[in-house]
Amino acid sequence: MSEEARPHRTAAVIPAAGRGVRLGPGAPKALRTLGGTPMLIHAVRAMAASRAVSLVVVVAPPEGAPEVKNLLDEHALPERTDYLVVPGGETRQESVRLGIEALPDGITTVLVHDAARPLVPVDTVDAVVEAVRDGAPAVVPALPLTDTVKQVEPREKGEPEPVVATPERALLRAVQTPQGFDREMLQRAHRSETAVGEGATDCAGMVERLGAPVVVVPGHEEAFKVTRPLDLVLAEAVLARRRANDGF
User: Fold this and answer.
1) Which of 44, 57, 176, 226 would staple 231 via disulfide (CB 3.0–4.6 Å)?
2) The whole model's pTM is what?
3) Which of these, 107, 104, 74, lies nearest to 86 by C-alpha position?
4) Alpha carbon of 224 to those of 24, 84, 123: distances in Å?
C-alpha cells in the first residue's frame, strides 16, 4: 500500500509511572485528584476527546497496572476510543518505549502525553495530529516565553551562580505535550537512544539527536504541567472555570 493510501490511525501513550515527589508525599502524581477525579483520568479524557485518537495506552507503575486498569474501568470514558494499560519501567524513557511496543499494527501516528498535563484542550491535540499527518516526523506544541532566561554556570544548591549568557527570548519556546510523531521515526529514535544511553529529556529531543526535523505548533496556556502544589491550585481553578462556563 502506498504512503498516500495508507490509512492514518493515531494512538496516545501516557507514561504515568512516576511518583511526582515535588507535589509532596502521597499517591503517585498521576493519581492525585483534580476536582475529585484523578489527574490521569483527566489526561486520558483529553486525548480521547480528539476524534483522531483511536487508542490510549496508559503506562502504569511497574507493580500498579491492575490498579490503574481498575481506575479506568471506574470512570466514564469516550466509548469510541480503546484503552490499554501496560506496566512501565524504571525511567520515563523506558516507560514510553514499553508503551510504544504495546501498540498494535496499523497505528501510524503516536502522541506522547504527560499525565501531569491534565487540562490540555482538544484543539491542541488535533493541531499536533494534523501536523504529523501533513508530513512532519515530529511535532511539539509550545508557547513563547514571557520571562527572560539566563544560562548559568551551575553551583552547589543555594550558592550564587554566574551568568554566562542571555539567550534571545524571541527565539525560545516552552514545550508542552502531547508531542506527536510518525511511528517509525519514534521507534527509530528510541532504538538509537537505547543504544547510546539516556540523554534527551523528551522524545522530541531524541528525534533531534537523529538529525530529523522537529516542528512547533501553538500550545495553550491551560496545557501547563502540574508539578508543584501551586500548580495544583491553578489547575483546580481552571477546571472550576471550565465547569462553570462550559459544563466540562
Assistant:
1) 226
2) 0.91
3) 104
4) 18, 25, 15
141: β partners:
217
**CATH code that applies to domain 10-139+176-246:** 3.90.550.10
Q: How many degrees, rounded to 5, is the angle at CA 111 between CA 108 and CA 117?
A: 170
Q: Would you kindly state where each structural domain of the chain is located, as residue ranges?
A: 10-139+176-246
pLDDT band at 19 (very low <50, low <70, confident <90, very high): low
- If pLDDT is split at 50, 70 and 90, which confidence band does 17 have? confident
Q: Write out the three cell numbers for 129.
A: 495530529
DSSP-derived 3-state class of residue 14: strand
Q: Which residues, 6 or more positions from 60, have their beta carbon under 8 angstroms from its beta carbon?
A: 16, 17, 67, 68, 69, 85, 86, 87, 88
203: its cell numbers: 522524545
H-state helical runs in the chain: 39-48, 65-74, 92-101, 122-133, 183-196, 203-209, 229-246
At 243, the amino acid letter reads: R
- Beta carbons of 24 and 226 less than 8 angstroms apart: no
Enclosing H/E stretch for 165: strand 163-165
Counted residue by residue, the chain has a size of 248
Q: How many CB atoms lie within 10 A of CB 83?
A: 16
Contacts of the segment 78-82: beta carbons below 8 A, 24+ positions apart = 78/45, 78/48, 78/49, 80/48, 80/51, 80/54, 81/47, 81/48, 81/53, 81/54, 81/55, 81/56, 82/54, 82/55, 82/56
